Amino acid sequence: MSEKQSIKTWPRNVAADFSKLRKSEQTRQIILDTALEFLWSHSFRDLSVAGLTNQAGISRTCFYQYFDDLHNLMEVLLNDLEWEILAAAEPWLIAKADSAVKLSESLYKLVKVCYERGPILLAIFESAPMDERLEKAWNDFVNVFDDTVTARIIQDQALGRAPEFQARPVAIALNRMDIGILIHHFGRDPRSEIQPVYQAIVRIWLNTIYGKETLDTVQG
Amino acid sequence: MSEKQSIKTWPRNVAADFSKLRKSEQTRQIILDTALEFLWSHSFRDLSVAGLTNQAGISRTCFYQYFDDLHNLMEVLLNDLEWEILAAAEPWLIAKADSAVKLSESLYKLVKVCYERGPILLAIFESAPMDERLEKAWNDFVNVFDDTVTARIIQDQALGRAPEFQARPVAIALNRMDIGILIHHFGRDPRSEIQPVYQAIVRIWLNTIYGKETLDTVQG
DNA sequence: TTTTTTTCTGACATTATGTCAGAAAAGCAA
DNA sequence: TTGCTTTTCTGACATAATGTCAGAAAAAAA
Question: Deepest in the core among A86, A211, B101, B166, taking most CB within 10 A?
Answer without folding.
Answer: A211
